[in-house]
Amino acid sequence: MTLHIETPALLFSATSLILLAYTNRFLTIAQIVRGLKKNYDEHHTKTILLQIKNLNLRLSLIRYMQLFGVLCLFLSVFAMFCLFLEQQTMGIYLFGASLFTLLISLGISFWEISISVTALRLHLSDLMEEEDKK
Q1: What share of the chain has pLDDT > 90, as a percent?
Q2: Cα pseudo-dihedral 44, 47, 52, 53, rounded to 10
Q3: C-alpha span between 132 and 47 (Å, rounded)
């Protein structure tokens, strides 16, 4: 198998966009947590505490998503460097590792999204119950 230096470079644009999306998710959730914390300081309700706990888990997952995304870029650069130095075998392995870390990042992203959907369904469940009563 022959790998050209342009192939690992293809991951840059995709991974950069994914990292931007992860960062936007992180910033949005961080802002929600700050608002909930202020609300919790005033009211001390258990539901707010559970929401903060859920969002804290999601923030941790996003941190790992970002970590594996950056690792993907890092390994892609090393793969390109090895290909530049005509170390074909090492370049192939590093590119494979970068693809694997991208898969891990996307898998964690799917996990985080499923947690988000579950939380939203729970949050909206009272509306659905109210609608069913009509």
Answers
A1: 65
A2: 110
A3: 23
pTM: 0.84
Alpha-carbon distances, residue 101 vs 14, 59, 73, 89 (angstroms) = 13, 19, 9, 19
Q: Give 44's Cβ-side CA count (13 Å radius).
A: 0
Q: pLDDT digit string (tens) for 54-107?
A: 999 999 999 999 999 999 999 999 999 999 999 999 999 999 999 999 999 999
Q: How far is CA 89 from CA 19, 75, 77, in A?
A: 28, 14, 15
